[in-house]
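Researcher: Sequence of CBPC1 carboxypeptidase follows. Predict its structure.
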Amino acid sequence: AVNAVSLGKNGVVELMFKIIGPFSKKNTSLMKVALDTLAALLKSKTNARRAVDRGYMQVLLTIYVDWHRHDSRHRYMLIRKGVLQCIKSVTNIKLGRKAFIDANGMKILYNTSQECLAVRTLDPLVNSSSLIMRKCFPKNRLPLPTIKSTFHFQLPVIPASGPVAQLYSLPPDVDDVVDESDDNDDGETESEIETENDDDKDEHFKNDDIETDINKLKPRQELGRPMEELKMYEQFFPELSENFQEWDLVSKEPKPFVPEANLSGPIVVPTASEE
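Model: Prediction complete. Tokens:
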């Protein structure tokens, strides 16, 4: 991240956009390396904002459409995927998502993905396009006055500072789908932004609403009927009353074979009046 910021200050983002360009069979290996480098540089929020401010989102979409139209034999799938990775890096910030919508990126990626569905080898392009579209699609409220359920679940523990408590305390008219993700970041310095590794955030995320006490999570095992009613079944289900820890269940000496002599005797049913 530090190197990306340093390179960005020295104009390397603009240089990379001069190297990449529309469809050409020349220097495809250079194009692939340049796109990989650019995607890594644009993971920096500072560089991503710089790219958006210079209108490079429209440039990336135009390049992607050009390669999509001309690569009819799908020989340059990695280059097309590299362009999508650059778009994905830029859309990590709110400003990039807005630029993507303004540049008609949703329609472009949707139409190109539809054309790629018939070719199995282009699945990575469809997957990347789907992730970008899902990330950038504007959030909308459900057509409901409130997202609170009419049925309140009796949660055993609701941490006072957790997201569930915040949800329960929201007034009905509050817009809870506003994109508050990152950024307009006027008060943040570059060092504060870039020292965070966005890829590792999820690994260290801790949800205060998750119960970790095993004793609270264990279900209480209760008999469906009183013990007095179950006494008649003791001979069939000795586990209800016997303490098997006192039994010598593992004997070192083999037991002698006893023929099944009791099979011909009467069968006693506890609820019946006769044998």
